[in-house]
Amino acid sequence: MPEALSAPLVVEFPFTRSLGPVQSAFLTGLRERTVLGVRTAGGKILVPPVEYDPVTAEEIRELTEVAATGTVTTWAWNPAPRRGQPLDAPFAWVLVRLDGADTALLHVLAAPGPEAVRTGMRVRIRWAAERTGAITDIACFEPYDGEETGQQPAPHDGRFANPVTGIVTPTRLDYRYTPGRAQSAYLDALSRRRIVGERCPSCRKVYVPPRGACPTCGVATAEQVEVGPRGTVTTFCIVNIKAKNLDIEVPYVYAHIALDGADLALHARIGGIPYDQVRMGLRVEPVWTEDGRHPDHYRPTGEPDADYDAYKELV
Amino acid sequence: MPEEPVAVVGIGQTKHVSARRDVSIAGLVREAAVRALEDAALTWADIDAVVIGKAPDFFEGLMMPELYLADALGAVGKPMLRVHTAGSVGGSTALVAANLVSARVHRTVLTLAFEKQSESNAMWGLSLPIPFQQPLLAGAGGFFAPHVRAYMRRTGAPDSVGSLVAYKDRRNALKNPYAHIHDPDITLEKVRSAPMLWDPIRYSETCPSSDGACAMILTDRAGAARSPHPPAWVHGGAMRSEPTLFAGKDFVSPRAGRDCAADVYRQAGIGDPRREIDAVEMYVPFSWYEPMWLENLGFADEGEGWKLTESGVTELDGDLPVNPSGGVLSTNPIGASGMIRFAEAALQVRGQAGEHQVPGARKALGHAYGGGAQFFSMWLVGAEPPTR
C-alpha cells in the first residue's frame, strides 16, 4: 500500500471591511493620534467604541476623547511572536483601560521580560511613525510613570478630514492537508496512468475518485477496481469566461465523464475537438502530460457515440 | 401537547445593492432587524432569542457572526444560535427559529441572515487550492450549467425557456423596491442577446452579487394576537440533505428536494400544490432552475416544468406566480437569499408585498437550496392559522 500523502495548504485572502460611522471615527482618530470612545446610555465610556449599546442594544453615537495613557488590567507574556503580530521581539499581550475609559483595549506592551509587567502598571501609547487609520497606528504600549489625572473625557464630534471608511483585513490559515488512504492510492495509480476506483461492499457501486467510504451506505470501501480509461461524456458546458489563475484558452468544454466501469461521472476538460462539436454521448479517453498528476484533458476516441439509454442514469 | 402555531409578525430587508460601503456588517444586519421590529411593533426587550445565518465563513471571512453581532442584534443575555447550511442557510435559519417557537422553547424569536458580497469573494471561497486535487475548471455557473443541459436533454425543453424566466424575474424586480437589479429597459431581446458565460447559461440568466440582510420576527399565538399587521402562519417546514456526490444522485431533480417538499405538503395538508398554492418564492440562481424546481417541488410532472414557464403560468399575473419579488436572479446576498424567499412568501400571504403582491394570495411556498444541490429547506405559510 502506498504511503499516505500530506502537503501544506495555505488559505489566505485580503477581506475588505466597510467601517460604518463609529469604527471610521475611531480608526481615523488613531491616525490623528486621538483615541475615541463611545458613551453608553448608562454613562460608561467604551474603548474601543461599538455601534450598539451592549446593555440596551440601542444605537450609540456619542463619541468622547480619552487619554493616550492608561492602566494594564491583565496581561499574558508572548515569548515567541508569530508572523503578522505587532512586535518582532517577545512582548506582553495587555488589556489597557485608557484614562477616562470604562473598558479595556487589547493591544501589546513592549517590555524586556515578563518580570517587567504587572497588572495595575501605568502605560502609554507609542504611536507608529506612519499612521494610516488602523489599529496598528498604535505601534504598542510602553511603560509610563505618570498617575491618572482624573480628567473627564471630552466630547468629540468624530469628524476628521479624509476619514478612513474601509480597511483590509488579511486572513491566513495554515493547514497540513492529508488526503487519506483512498485518495493516496488513487493518486499512486494515476502516477502509473491507471484510474482505480473503489467498490462499495454493500451497494456494489464503483466510486472514482474514491473517498474511502460509500456516501450512500456509510460503509468503508476497500476493493479496488480499475476503470476506463475510456468513458462517455454525460453532459457538459462551454466555458466562455477566463478563470483567473487558470491557463486555458476560452472557449473550452467542461464535461462530466462516466468512465467505463464507474458509477458516477468525474469532471474534466475536453480537447482535441472543436468546442462546438462536443455532444452528450461522445466517447473520450484521457490525455496525459509528462508532469501532470491528473490527465490534462480527455479527447475523442473516434468510437460511435454512446446511446443515451446507456448512460442516462449517470447524467 | 400539540405544537405551538408559529406566526411571522415582522419582516425587514435592506435595499439590496452591489456594495453598501456606508455601513459595517453590524450596521447592515441592524437595519434589517430594526425594520422587522418596527413591522411587528416590538422592541429589543420583546425578543427572547436570536438565530442568525450566513454563507460559508470563507465567503466573507467572518468566522463567528454570532459573537461579533450579539450587541447589534440585542442578543446580550439571550440565547444566540448560528445556522450553517451553505446557500440554503437563510431558509434553515428561519426553520430553526420557527422550531424554537413551535416547541415552546421561546415565545418570540428574531431570525436574520445576511451577506456582504462586496467585502468577500465567493468564487475564491469555493475554489480553495486543495493539494493533490484537480482544480474546479469552471466556476459556480460551470458547476450548474451541465445539469441545465441534462435537464434540456431529458425534457426536450426548447432553448428559449431560460431567457423567459430571466425576463420575468427582472420585470418583477421592478415592482420590488428592495430588489438589487432594477433595469427599467429590460426586454426579452436584451436577455437573449447577452453573452453565453457557461453555455447553456447566459450572463443575463445568472444571479447578481449583492450586499443585503433580511430579518423576521417569529412568535406564538399570543404574540400573533398582539401583532398590528396580519401575521403569516407557518403551516409546514422541513429540511433535507444529501451528499454532494454519490452514485445515483439526480442533479436535475435531487431526491432531498422532492422529499423535503413532500414533507412540507404533508404537514400543511396540501394534496395538489399546483392548485392549492398561490405564490412560490423559489431559489433560482440560474434561470433554468425555475422549470427544474417546478418539477422537483411537485408543481409539474417530470418533463413538464418548462411548459408552465413557457405558457406564462409563472408570471406575476399567471395562476402560479413564481418569484414575484424578482427572486435570486434579481437579488443575491448569498447567506440571506434563502431567508428572503421565506420572507417574501410571508409578505404575500400577509398581503404586504406592495406592487408585486399576488392578489388574494392565501398560501405561499418559500424554498431554498445550497451546496451542490445538497441542502434543501422550505416552508409553507398561510394567511390563516393552521387547523391541524
Descriptive labels:
heterodimer, A: 315 residues, mainly beta, 3 domains, 5-stranded antiparallel β-sheet, 3 helices, B: 388 residues, alpha/beta, Peroxisomal Thiolase, Chain A, domain 1, 9-stranded mixed β-sheet, two-stranded antiparallel ribbon, globular
Number of strands of chain B: 11
The total number of structural domains of chain B is 1
Low-confidence stretches of chain B: none
Gyration radius of chain A, rounded: 31 Å
Instruction: Please give the largest β-sheet of chain A.
Output: 5 strands, antiparallel
Q: Provide the CATH architecture of chain B.
A: 3-Layer(aba) Sandwich
Main β-sheet of chain B, in a few words?
A: 9 strands, mixed
Q: What percentage of residues of chain A falls in helices of 4 or more residues?
A: under 10%
- Note poorly predicted spans of chain A: none
SSE run of chain B: EHEHHEHEHHHHEEEHEHHEHHHHEE
CATH fold category name of chain B: Peroxisomal Thiolase, Chain A, domain 1
> How far apart are the first and last residues' alpha carbons of chain A, in Å?
33 Å
User: What is the structural class of chain A?
Assistant: mainly beta
Describe the structure in your own words:
Chain B: One of its GO terms (molecular function) is acyltransferase activity, transferring groups other than amino-acyl groups. Chain B: Residues 243-374 form the Thiolase C-terminal domain. Chain B: Keywords: Transferase. Chain B: This is Acetyl-CoA C-acetyltransferase. Chain A: It holds the Pfam family OB_ChsH2_C. The complex is a heterodimer of chains A (315) and B (388). Chain A has 315 residues and is mainly beta. Chain A has 3 domains: 14-172, no CATH class; 179-227, no CATH class; 229-315, no CATH class. Chain A is 9% helix and 37% strand. Chain A has helices at 20-31, 180-191, 308-311, and strands at 7-18, 35-39, 45-46, 63-66, 69-78, 91-98, 105-109, 122-127, 138-143, 154-155, 166-177, 195-199, 206-207, 223-227, 231-239, 252-259, 266-270, 283-287, 297-300. In chain A, the strands form 5 sheets. In chain A, strands 7-6-5-8-9 form a 5-stranded antiparallel sheet, with no helix packed on it. In chain A, strand 12 (195-199) and strand 13 form a beta hairpin. The longest helix of chain A is centred in the N-terminal third of the chain and has 12 residues, at 20-31. In chain B, helix 4 (89-102) packs across helix 15. Chain B has one domain (7-122, 207-382): Thiolase/Chalcone synthase (Peroxisomal Thiolase, Chain A, domain 1). In chain B, 35% of the residues lie in helices and 18% in strands. In chain B, strands 3-2-4-7-1-8-11-10-9 form a 9-stranded mixed sheet. In chain B, strands 5-6 form a two-stranded antiparallel ribbon. With 388 residues, chain B is an alpha/beta fold. The radius of gyration of chain B is 19 Å and the shape is globular. The mean pLDDT of chain B is 95. The interface between A and B is large, with 67 and 62 residues.
